[in-house]
């Protein structure tokens, strides 16, 4: 499918594309990880994530705080206890072509400054649900899903019902051992389960992954026990003692302890052997009896893994080589325009339902007006110049968006009289002008908070799981209250006055409304009351400010810690001010995000809504990560010049792992500058500002080698 090539994007186009990708992939994560109802396949999902990474690589200063590159999974679902992972459960970087596997090997060797060959393990990537199992003294004590990578769902009782998961380990196990792997369902077991479901009149499952995820996440463990779930172990989290010196030997150790490990896991001496094993597994894919969506490569030497460390959401020492996605043809029945919380007018194709990669698809994204017209945002031809019209037969490509994409049009089947689609220039929800800024591929409603669609979508975002997560107040209830004449909720602060307004109303009590009763109304008011105390990061995310996602909210909260400090900084920030310099020096916060924050706090209507909300809350401070046993925890560090004993990337990663904040420029807020040979303007800035400077040896001595 034709897309504007990353190398031809302008900065403005790249910024707009990154915004679209961030929103799309965040929603896709929620559908897949939280709702167990993915609307896209993993392989095609990753195509969009790959595009996001390519744009970020070309425009590193445009990387968003809510970048999909930094996201892992999604928030835990309601109904389960929460488990904080002692060692984060991360996702994997993806590769789709042979040259990307070679590039991965080159990046690893460059990061380590290693000229020779490096050994890797290669294993099938199981398409199931990630699970972490904690053993103490050889006994299973806890099981948790990945969740958002830091907090998962407690599914211990359910995990105990899976035959492949030992309750007691065999052999000499570490005193503490967290085993990680994938819960899945075989094709044969899946078919038999659906036969039973159909025979009993129950809902059937669309694919084995959904069946496995839905079965593990049952509130009644007896239901899980009745489902044919399997488990492959492939990794570990917290350990009281090492399993082995290499990845391959550690997997063999897990097998000796009683776990099922994949027999197709092999040791490879470089990219050529890795790709050979990929082709072997791909050829066997249809006969394995369970779903896989690629092959995972990992650096075999665990000491090298430790040196390579992690990015924000992926390890540097592993990559998933994914299999290709799938296509299908169907009829375009109509085009709808949806208005999002930032005012973006998004065209959605309504399709005659068609199965793509095992999932029934009935709608697809059309991106924007240029895409429908057969051109990219620069006016250049895509799809051979073929536009998209209602009634066309279109090719659907499930490529990683919230909904799939329309890839192509079959002009031979276009009916006579089909008319070109005219994209609206007014908002279909509020009638405000819909403007398109120069360089932006998206047309946006200018109505702001007067646009009901934007207001409702912002409220839905506010009560979402990663924001205030108010039980009993979901999308349906938000729409109801927004349109209610007696108890209207137009802004977030209105939610926290619901109970008082209901009590003051002598008539039409909430408990007497359709869908509510005495118990449900009381529960809702109690759930709202429980959320009056909220951590700063969740509050910032809840505002729904453009370019400020969950990851960015965490960065901001950990930097400022207190609401008062954050509010004062954003209120007084403007380009060139000390507050602006401090804000943009935060690693992961650029000019685009900073400007978006400042504009939100300076917009009278938005600021009034923010202040009204804050007045209703107790806002908890957020502390920086990694404050234990680290002399640099909480310090802002800048590296400059040439480092001779480690690469710059390794030094930065190590500093962040120790709790330091790594900035790209020197300011009055900088605590330490590590200067190697060739240090230039940053060293001069440090001298001018009186910032402490040390060399590489001093840095290594400070952090303990």
Question: Would you write up a description of this structure?
Answer:
This protein is of the alpha+beta class. It folds into five domains: 6-65 and 327-413, Nucleic acid-binding proteins (OB fold (Dihydrolipoamide Acetyltransferase, E2P)); 82-322, DNA ligase/mRNA capping enzyme (D-amino Acid Aminotransferase, Chain A, domain 1), CATH 3.30.470.30; 448-531, DNA polymerase, domain 1; 535-620, DNA polymerase, domain 1 (Orthogonal Bundle); 636-703, Rossmann fold, CATH 3.40.50.10190. It contains 25 helices and 24 strands. The strands form seven sheets. Strands 2-11-10-3-9 form a five-stranded mixed beta sheet, with helices on both faces. The protein has a five-stranded antiparallel beta sheet with strand order 14-13-12-15-16. Strands 5-4-7-8 form a four-stranded antiparallel beta sheet. α1 (11-34) packs antiparallel against α2, α3 (98-112) runs antiparallel to α9 and α17 (536-542) packs across α18 (550-560). The longest helix has 24 residues, at 11-34. It starts with 10 loop residues before the first helix and ends with a helix.
């Amino acid at each position: 499918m034709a897309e504007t090539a990353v190398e031809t994007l302008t900065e403005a186009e790249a910024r707009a594309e990154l915004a679209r990708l961030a929103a799309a992939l965040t929603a896709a994560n929620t559908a897949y990880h939280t709702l167990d109802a993915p609307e896209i396949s993993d392989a095609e999902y990753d195509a969009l994530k790959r595009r996001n990474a390519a744009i970020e690589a070309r425009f590193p200063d445009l990387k968003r705080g809510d970048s999909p590159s930094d996201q892992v999974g999604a928030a835990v679902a309601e109904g389960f206890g929460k488990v904080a992972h002692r060692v984060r459960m991360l996702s994997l970087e993806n590769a789709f072509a042979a040259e990307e596997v070679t590039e991965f090997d080159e990046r690893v060797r460059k990061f380590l400054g290693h000229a020779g060959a490096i050994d890797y393990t290669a294993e099938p990537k199981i398409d199931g649900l990630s699970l972490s199992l904690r053993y103490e003294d050889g006994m299973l004590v806890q099981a948790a899903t990945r969740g958002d990578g830091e907090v998962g769902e407690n599914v211990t009782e359910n995990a105990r019902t899976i035959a492949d998961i030992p309750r007691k380990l065999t052999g000499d196990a570490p005193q503490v051992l967290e085993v990680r792997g994938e819960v899945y369902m075989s094709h044969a077991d899946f078919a038999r389960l659906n036969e039973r479901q159909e025979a009993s009149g129950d809902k059937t499952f669309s694919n084995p992954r959904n069946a496995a995820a839905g079965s593990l996440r049952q509130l009644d463990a007896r239901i899980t026990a009745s489902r044919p779930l399997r488990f492959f172990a492939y990794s570990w989290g917290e350990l009281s003692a090492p399993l082995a010196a290499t990845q391959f030997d550690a997997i063999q150790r897990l097998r000796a302890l009683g776990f099922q490990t994949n027999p197709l896991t092999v040791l490879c001496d470089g990219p050529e052997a890795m790709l050979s094993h990929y082709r072997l597994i791909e050829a066997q894919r249809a006969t394995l009896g369970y779903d896989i969506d690629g092959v995972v490569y990992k650096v075999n030497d665990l000491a090298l893994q430790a040196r390579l460390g992690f990015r924000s959401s992926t390890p540097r020492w592993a990559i998933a080589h994914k299999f290709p996605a799938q296509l299908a043809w169907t009829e375009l029945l109509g085009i709808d325009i949806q208005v999002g919380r930032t005012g973006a007018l998004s065209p959605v194709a309504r399709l005659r339902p068609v199965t793509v990669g095992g999932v029934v698809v009935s709608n697809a994204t059309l991106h924007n007006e240029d895409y429908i017209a057969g051109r990219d945002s620069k006016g250049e031809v895509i799809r051979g110049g073929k536009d998209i019209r209602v009634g066309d037969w279109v090719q659907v490509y499930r490529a990683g968006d919230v909904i799939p994409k329309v890839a192509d049009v079959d002009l031979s089947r276009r009916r006579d009289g089909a008319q070109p689609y005219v994209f609206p220039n007014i908002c279909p929800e509020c009638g405000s002008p819909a403007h398109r800024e120069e360089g932006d591929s998206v047309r946006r409603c200018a109505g702001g908070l007067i646009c009901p669609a934007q207001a409702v979508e912002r409220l839905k975002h506010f009560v979402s799981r990663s924001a205030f997560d108010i039980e009993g107040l979901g999308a349906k209830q938000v729409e109801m209250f927004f349109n209610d004449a007696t108890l209207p909720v137009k802004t977030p602060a209105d939610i926290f006055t619901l109970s008082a307004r209901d009590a003051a109303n002598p008539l039409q009590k909430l408990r007497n409304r359709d869908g509510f009763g005495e118990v449900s109304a009381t529960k809702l008011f109690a759930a709202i009351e429980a959320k009056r105390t909220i951590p700063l990061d969740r509050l910032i995310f809840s505002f729904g400010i453009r370019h400020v996602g969950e990851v960015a909210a965490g960065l901001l909260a950990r930097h400022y810690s207190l609401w008062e400090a954050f509010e004062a900084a954003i209120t007084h920030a403007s380009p060139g001010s000390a507050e602006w310099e401090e804000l943009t020096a935060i690693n992961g916060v650029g000019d685009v995000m900073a400007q978006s924050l400042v504009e939100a706090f300076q917009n009278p209507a938005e600021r009034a809504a923010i202040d009204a909300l804050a007045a209703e809350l107790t806002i908890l401070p957020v502390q920086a990560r990694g404050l234990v046993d680290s002399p640099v925890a909480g310090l802002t560090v800048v590296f400059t010049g040439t480092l001779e004993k480690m690469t710059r990337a390794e030094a930065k990663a190590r500093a962040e792992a120790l709790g330091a904040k790594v900035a790209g420029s020197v300011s009055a807020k900088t605590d330490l500058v590590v200067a190697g040979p060739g240090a230039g303007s940053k060293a001069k800035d440090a001298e001018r500002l009186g910032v402490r400077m040390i060399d590489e040896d001093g840095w290594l001595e400070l952090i303990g080698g």
